Amino acid sequence: SRQPLGNKQLAFQQQLLQMQQLQQQHLLNLQRQGLVSLPPGQGTVPLQTLPQAVCPSDLQQLWKEVTAAQPVEDSIKQEGLDLTTNTSNSTSFSAAKVSPPISHHPLPNGQSTMHTPRRDSSSHEETPGSHPLYGHGECKWPGCETLCEDLGQFVKHLNTEHALDDRSTAQCRVQMQVVQQLEIQLAKESERLQAMMAHLHMRPSEPKPFSQPLNLVSSATLSKSTSDTFPDGLPHPPTSATAPITPLRQGPSVISSSTLHNMGPIRRRNSEKFCTPISSELAQNHEFYKNADVRPPFTYASLIRQAILETPDRQLTLNEIYNWFTRMFAYFRRNTATWKNAVRHNLSLHKCFVRVENVKGAVWTVDEHEYQKRRPPKMTGSPTLVKNMISGLGYGALNASYQAALAESSFPLLNSPTMINTSSASGMLHVGHDDVSSTVEQVNSNGTSWGCFPPRSHPVHVKEEPAEAEDDSRPVSLMATTNQNVTIPDDRDLEEELPVEDLS
DNA sequence: TCAAGGATAAACAGAA
DNA sequence: TTTCTGTTTATCCTTG
């Protein structure tokens, strides 16, 4: 709304040009396959000159031709792909520019992972005489759902209600962005999956790219996550109209498992429990959070801490913290009243945030000791805590302990001697609180500290309650003994909290 | 069931 | 007076 009118017009013109190009491309595709015969001249218009050569009325006609041709044109089902991939040569479609090359991983069921949600919306698409936007007797145009008795009525409805106008163009653009975002994340996650499988010595064709990643890390995780999934076993996007767009399986690296659950406090809590290394997470998915309206899976406290620690002098004014939030996360570019209040609330509430008066006014700093003390020590040796410790420390030397834990958790793929280095794993739990922190700092490759130390279960507690750790021999045995001797009472928990990121 | 942590909302006060 | 900043309280939810 703050955009100048000129910019809006320009943006709209650009959208229109995109639409024109897409339609023209689609027609060209049809023409190439001999399915549509364009009037002389139209089909020969060079793509680059199309925007100038085709006026809106022509496009309207083209649009009608396209929709009219679809019932007899099965290949129209590729339209979703055309819209998103074939436009890579379009100068205005950004997906191809910002996303890595998208690999089409075949699924066991023969489907390609490279498709749009719209194509999944209805099985009617598979039948001749169907339309991608028509299924179950209703219009599948986003937000429409108008009931149409038959395809003819639908086509009529499509041409009247969804003609090439401002509204349809805008809706199409929104859909483009949705697809674009999903594809970007899909590409990321696909690459990650390949790397994970390669790391785990799995045959790339073995796992199901869509259903396996979670299982790969934790089949038991699904005991929780399935409660948030649909009967088909696949997490579905939130249906709430107010919920921000959530990547399906293409979420950011570490939150990928937790993000799949849902939005809001649950996810945040889960992610916090996962002890996601926030700086690592942000480094890897900076662009994602920056552009996608996805709530970051971190607590306010951890985010504030991260914001402060990212600065050279490790202090920020409140307004600078605000700016960091809005700069780093698209999500925080809205709902300002809510999260700003929450930020202030957290700053005041947590003793780990110290207000300091200086020449700039009041700035906020982080008391690391207090931050890591936030939760009462609970080092009872529970597998959960061990897992959190492992997952919170990232890779490096701790990878061995992580792998050992994995090996212990009835994880057959990792029960390979080559995967386990118990020697380096031993003694990990003897690292003291500060030592852990320093280790983390060293391990972290991007030079910043981990932003997530969920106080409830952070490794910091190891030193603070040595007696408890000794009382409960589970973590000690976990690290100090061979995997044959280790028993993990709750391997469901263990698997559940193993971050995907650590495997990659 | 309970305690703890986190998110959210809101009221309030002081300063600019 | 308005806005920003900071504090405090209350409530709800999730988790262990």
Automatic annotation (TrEMBL):
Region listing for Disordered, in residue ranges: 84-133, 448-504
GO molecular function: DNA-binding transcription repressor activity, RNA polymerase II-specific; RNA polymerase II cis-regulatory region sequence-specific DNA binding; zinc ion binding
DNA-binding region(s), residue ranges: 295-368
Acidic residues compositional bias, start-end: 492-504
Basic and acidic residues: compositionally biased ranges: 117-128
Compartment annotation: Nucleus
Domain Fork-head: 295-368
UniProt xrefs under InterPro entries: FH_FOXP4, Fork_head_dom, FOXP, FOXP-CC, TF_fork_head_CS_2, WH-like_DNA-bd_sf, WH_DNA-bd_sf
CDD domains per the UniProt record, alphabetical: FH_FOXP4
Gene Ontology cellular component annotations, sorted alphabetically: nucleus
SMART domains to which the protein is assigned, alphabetical: FH
Record's keyword terms, sorted: DNA-binding, Metal-binding, Nucleus, Repressor, Transcription, Transcription regulation, Zinc, Zinc-finger
Compositional bias annotation for Low complexity: 84-94
Protein name as it appears in the record: Forkhead box P4
Protein's organism: Bubo bubo
